[in-house]
Specification:
Blueprint (H helix, E strand, L loop, with lengths): L14 H9 L14 H7 L3 H9 L13 H7 L25 H13 L14 H7 L3 H9 L22 H27 L2 H6 L6 H15 L9 E6 L6 H12 L9 E5 L6 H8 L13 H8 L4 E5 L6 H13 L1 E3 L5 E3 L4 E6 L3 H24 L15 H16 L2 H5 L3 E4 L5 H23 L2 E4 L1 H8 L8 H21 L8 E8 L8 E8 L5 E3 L11
Parallel strand pairs: 1-6, 1-7, 2-3, 3-6, 8-9
Antiparallel strand pairs: 4-5, 9-10, 10-11
Length: about 550
């Protein structure tokens, strides 16, 4: 058989045939057109020598089956529309014989490779070779797969591990024993990975600036991961700072880190709390009590926590929430449980709750600017004195005295509950961007548009360092990184779009952004200039005409 035409089952007909096919270059993970692999077939049929040679050849013991059941697979693969008169398969199939009936063809393929012991109606999507060896009640195959790296914790499409299908006896005991080993090994690997690649470093790869906020959050999560936390209460953060400064992005990255091994699961539940700013809408939060409209639907928060009790939950704009919502959140933070409108209690002590607020954002921003100005004065003074220990650093820290004397009274006046503030593990401060961080933001935004220009129009976009300084000047402290995004769109992308519309950009050209001063005056306003760079490094400034005014 040639590799593209080889079925998964043909690899398992005989040990010698399997060796021959593998030597000819057949992929050991090649799938049958209906979704299964050779290792799954060998495990189900107790072919130990074939299981051994496939594993040695690199077959993946954790690959999941794409086959569900005979009827679903027939529909999904488009083998038959299931229309017409009843045929030999017993369904609405127009075929007149078993050999020509598509459903029967699927059933024959399945039973020919897996044996008829498996129900044709049961679902098998996501089952691994370990699931099939367990269904076959084969301790030897189970052990071979486990020793080759098969995960006893991997679930199939309906959420069951292999042990859920094990009979009482050796296979069940073996799987239980290896589950403990696997958890222990997994914990050691994760601990080693955390030591080698700390959370602070991971977060800084996605977030510009905010070193103090990153360190505070990472330290709290490290306590939780290593067992140094109060397991009776969930972890609660309050993120304070201006809009567009990284609060929501940090929450997203925390969620991605905490649930890195969970696939197809929404781990960051973002609730816009100001939507629950009036009493009539509070019921949507936890669900209406019995007898009221919407009782059966449940609440947004309770449904989410019931689905994932260890989720990362983001409460956006918590300062705009109705007091009744704060009462619910206080119960949640204090007891680690929540009672829904139906009277059912949901345990969520392992969850992480992150609240964001713009309260005191102006005070925080002004204090940070003062600290930076003071740091610059100290640095210049040291430089003038020729001291060797001069270090230029943009890293500043909010003082404890400022937090207690300025921020704490503002929070108490707004939330009016000491017990609510007392249940917050960490209040995290997000500071305005310094100049070096603004340059990183501008560079990131320009790289984004350079990638778009290359992908969509085959245009290479370059820029000089002064361009970064010019665009960084568009920073607005109240709008954060969004102001940089809008500045790049106004001053760069608008020119690119106009030049493209006026057919000034040859396909495959190289464009360079540079800064020029308007007029000859000393204090003239700088502007951006677009130049087409030739193959000989010569440049030509684009003459972009302004759009016609409406009266013309």
């Amino acid at each position: 058989c040639s590799a593209p035409e080889t079925t998964a089952g043909s690899l398992t007909y005989a040990y010698k045939d399997c060796l021959m096919l593998l030597k000819e270059g057949v992929d050991p993970n090649h799938r049958h057109r209906l979704g299964w692999t050779a290792l799954m077939v060998a495990a189900m049929n107790r072919q130990h020598s074939v299981v051994k040679v496939l594993l040695e050849a690199g077959a993946d013991p954790n690959a999941g089956d794409h086959f569900n059941n005979v009827y679903d697979t027939s529909r999904e693969k488009g083998i038959h529309s299931l229309e017409g008169e009843e045929g030999a398969c017993g369904s609405n199939c127009s075929s007149s014989s078993v050999s020509s009936c598509p459903l029967s063809a699927v059933l024959v393929s399945r039973e020919d490779e897996f044996s008829s012991r498996l129900s044709s109606r049961a679902g098998f999507r996501g089952c691994t070779a370990l699931h099939y060896a367990t269904l076959a009640d084969d301790p030897r195959a189970v052990r071979m797969l486990l020793e080759a790296g098969a995960s006893p914790l991997q679930t199939n499409g309906v959420g069951h591990t292999a042990r859920a299908y094990a009979k009482e006896g050796e296979v069940s005991t073996l799987l239980q024993e290896w589950e403990g080993k696997f958890l222990e090994l997994q914990a050691r690997r994760e601990a080693e990975e955390r030591r080698r690649f700390p959370l602070e470093r991971r977060l800084k790869e996605h977030i510009i600036g905010q070193e103090g906020a990153i360190n505070t959050v990472a330290s709290a999560i490290r306590r939780k991961e290593n067992g140094w936390y109060d397991e009776e209460h969930p972890l609660v953060f309050l993120f304070l700072g201006s809009s567009g400064i990284g609060k929501t992005e940090l929450a997203k990255q925390v969620a991605r880190y905490m649930h890195k091994d969970i696939k197809k699961l929404v781990v960051l539940f973002r609730l816009i709390v100001h939507l629950f700013s009036v009493r009539a809408q509070v019921a949507k939060f936890i669900g209406s009590p019995p007898g009221y409209v919407g009782h059966e639907e449940g609440g947004q928060l309770t449904k989410l926590l019931r689905a994932c009790p260890n989720a990362v939950v983001l409460f956006d704009e918590v300062d705009k929430a109705h007091p009744d919502v704060l009462t619910i959140m206080l119960q949640l933070f204090d007891e680690g449980r929540l009672t829904d409108g139906k009277g059912k209690t949901i345990e969520c002590k392992d969850a992480i709750f992150i609240m964001t607020s713009n309260v005191a954002s102006d005070e925080i921003a002004q204090h940070a600017l003062q600290l930076r100005q003071e740091a610059e004065r100290v640095s210049r003074r040291k430089l003038a004195d020729n001291l060797e220990d001069v270090q230029k650093s943009d890293d500043i820290k909010i003082s404890r005295q400022f937090k207690e004397s300025v921020i704490r009274p503002i929070l108490k006046a707004h939330f009016r509950r000491d017990e609510f503030l007392g249940r917050i593990n960490e209040i995290v401060y997000f500071l305005p961007f310094c100049h070096s961080e603004l340059l990183q933001l501008v560079s990131k935004e320009l790289n984004f548009w350079a990638k778009k220009a290359k992908q969509r129009h085959d245009i290479t976009l370059q820029w000089d360092r002064p361009v970064l300084d010019l665009l960084a000047g568009g920073y607005n402290m109240h709008y954060g990184a969004r102001s940089i995004k809008h500045e790049v769109e106004r001053r760069v992308v608008n020119q690119l779009a106009a030049a493209y519309e006026q057919e000034l950009l040859p396909k495959g050209c190289t464009l360079r952004l540079s800064v020029q001063s308007e007029g000859q005056k000393e204090h003239s306003t700088p502007s951006l200039r677009l130049e087409v760079v030739g193959e000989d490094s010569s440049s030509r400034t684009l003459d972009i005409r302004p759009p016609l005014s409406p009266e013309h």
